Amino acid sequence: MKTILSSEMMDIPEGVTIKVKAKIIEVEGPRGKLSRTFKHLNLDFQLIKDESGKHKLKIDAWFGSRNTTAAIRTALRHVENLITGVTKGYRYKMHFVYTHFPINAAITKSNKSIEIHNFLGEEKVRKVDMLEGVSIIRFEKVKDELVLDGNDIELVS
Predict the structure, then answer these.
(1) Which of 3, 32, 66, 67, CA to CA, is 20 to 30 A from 146?
(2) pTM for this one?
(3) Cβ–Cβ under 8 Å, residues 135 and 115
(4) How far is CA 97 from the centre of its chain?
(5) SS3 at position 31
(6) Is-contact 115 105, C-beta < 8 A?
């Protein structure tokens, strides 16, 4: 069964600007600018103002099935993740876990790469480059802890 019109709206916080053009959403805030494309979804995106003058993002799905209606909330969550990224950013904490062979790590290229030594007792050095916009820090206060920082949740995670 198809629903004639499914619609959801979300508020846009102060200090954040959103541009919608051909199903490409660009979010700009104090920490930078992120964009995401939704061309694979059959949804309509609109920027509107309500009676009180607040900006809102409205997503519509015309004649959609159950999956299309569920995609509305998914798209809204992705836009909320973009807004959180450009306002607060994302931080992931990781710990080295080992029992017999202690893992050693060295952060290189100004927090853009990490070299892992003695993983499972191997002599091979594993080198991992961070994705664009992600930095890695090793805190000395907590033993064997890495912290990944960035704006885009998909790149940081």
Answers:
(1) 32
(2) 0.87
(3) no
(4) 26
(5) coil
(6) yes
The identity of residue 141, as a single letter, is: K
pLDDT at position 143: 87
> DSSP readout, the chain?
--EEEEEEEEEPPTT-EEEEETTEEEEEETTEEEEEE-TTS--EEEEEE-TTS-EEEEEEEEEE-HHHHHHHHHHHHHHHHHHHHHHT-EEEEEE---SSS--EEEEETTTTEEEEESGGG--PPEEEEPPTTEEEEE-SSSTTEEEEEES-HHHH-
How high is the mean pLDDT of the chain?
Answer: 93
With beta carbons less than 8 A apart as the criterion, state whether 79 and 139 touch. Answer: no
pLDDT of 1 strictly over 80:
no
Q: Could you read off the pLDDT of 97-147 as tens digits, one per residue? A: 988 889 989 999 899 999 999 988 889 999 999 999 999 998 888 888 999
